[in-house]
Design brief:
single chain, mainly beta, N-terminal domain of TfIIb, 5-stranded antiparallel beta sheet, 11% helix, globular
């Protein structure tokens, strides 16, 4: 689980918008509220690299 304080300081590296944590059966992802990219979380560490993001927007 990602700490709330960490989420508060993270921003999307692509568009600099706020991000939220999404949890599903397949795991956690950090989702951008603006461009809709989803960044993976591996072993509790958010991978905030544009090349690693899923684009659903």
């Amino acid at each position: 689980m990602i700490d709330k304080e960490l989420l508060d300081i993270l921003a999307c590296p692509a568009c600099k918008a706020d991000v939220v944590l999404e949890t599903s059966a397949s795991g956690e992802k950090i989702a951008c509220t603006k461009c809709k990219r989803k960044y993976p979380v591996r072993d509790g560490i958010p991978i905030m690299l544009i090349d690693e993001a899923e684009q659903n927007g």
